[in-house]
């Protein structure tokens, strides 16, 4: 028994049965590399391996110099000839600027008059005002949870293949119509709820406000990246934010008018609600543009 367990005997026994191993060559070609990989495994047969090796050798000798399909797509996507001036003077940029500026002005006026409005509706009760102020602050934190929803809405078409003859940019532009329309509708409902002087209704106003704000600024950057060349994104984004900030200075005349009306923001809210209807022009224009592109294909 000790002899059977002796290491030298085990080594000799293994040597005797080496005829089970390949003698002349292994199962794969000599150039095949046996490596350990932690990535996802790929199954190859010998025909696939030989075909890929021949293709690599032909490319090395310069036989296959034709560009790959991915290279062609990159060249097509990068052939953007629109100048910054043409983008700035386009109807897309104008209506998008109005879309952003009107809703941003509505948000600024609501936040600026929130505390006086709560004091007015709560009959100057500090406990009730504190309760609603805390609720508003909590809903602002929930904006982090609302932000991805707009992205999921705009990327819903990427789960299915593109229609024949439709580019990815055209599909993205068509998908942005619903996002723009829903953002405008959210702002209209938020403005209507803010105009109604009912205190418990302001909980709904807070939810609509933070939801609309998340859709507004996320959709702003997404639409600029879709509708305009990528090389102009930084300039156009900075320009639209700067111009919308200039438009938001109209909140100070609104504050002055609200003071003249005795601190009651009802009439100013009605004016801003009517002004919010201008935001619906943008999604309608983009929809008509997409439909015109579809009809021109046939």
From TrEMBL:
This is Solute carrier family 43 member 3-like. It is found in: Membrane. It comes from the Eukaryota. The gene is LOC107556819. Signal peptide: none annotated. The keyword Membrane applies. Gene3D superfamilies: MFS general substrate transporter like domains. Its main location: membrane. It is a multi-pass membrane protein. InterPro entries: MFS_trans_sf, SLC43A3. Keywords: Membrane, Transmembrane, Transmembrane helix. GO terms for cellular component: membrane. SUPFAM superfamilies: MFS general substrate transporter (SSF103473). The chain crosses the membrane at residues 12-35, 88-109, 135-154, 175-198, 210-229, 236-254, 266-288.
């Amino acid at each position: 028994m000790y002899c059977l367990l002796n290491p030298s005997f085990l080594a000799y026994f293994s040597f005797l049965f080496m005829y089970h191993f390949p003698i002349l060559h292994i199962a794969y070609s000599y150039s095949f590399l046996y490596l350990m990989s932690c990535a996802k495994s790929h199954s190859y047969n010998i025909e696939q391996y030989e075909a890929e090796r021949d293709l690599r050798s032909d490319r090395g000798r310069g036989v296959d110099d034709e560009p790959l399909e991915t290279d062609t797509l990159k060249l097509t996507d990068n052939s953007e000839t629109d100048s910054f001036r043409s983008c700035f003077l386009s109807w897309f940029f104008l209506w998008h600027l109005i879309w952003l500026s009107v809703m941003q002005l509505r948000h600024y006026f609501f936040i600026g008059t929130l505390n006086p409005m709560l004091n007015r509706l709560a009959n100057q009760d500090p406990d009730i005002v504190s309760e609603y102020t805390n609720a508003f602050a909590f809903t602002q934190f929930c904006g982090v949870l609302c932000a991805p929803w707009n992205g999921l809405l705009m990327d819903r078409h990427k789960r299915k293949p593109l229609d024949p003859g439709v580019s990815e940019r055209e599909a993205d532009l068509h998908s942005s119509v619903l996002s723009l329309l829903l953002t405008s509708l959210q702002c209209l409902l938020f403005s209507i709820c803010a105009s109604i002087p009912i205190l418990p209704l302001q909980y709904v106003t807070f939810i609509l406000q933070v939801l609309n704000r998340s859709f507004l600024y996320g959709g702003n950057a997404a639409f600029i990246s879709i509708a305009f060349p990528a090389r102009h994104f930084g300039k156009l984004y900075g320009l639209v934010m700067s111009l919308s900030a200039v438009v938001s200075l109209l909140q100070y005349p609104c504050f002055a008018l609200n003071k003249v009306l005795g601190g009651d923001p009802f009439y100013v809210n009605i004016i801003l609600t009517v002004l919010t209807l201008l935001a619906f022009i943008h999604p309608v224009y983009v929809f008509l543009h997409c439909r015109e592109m579809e009809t021109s294909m046939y």
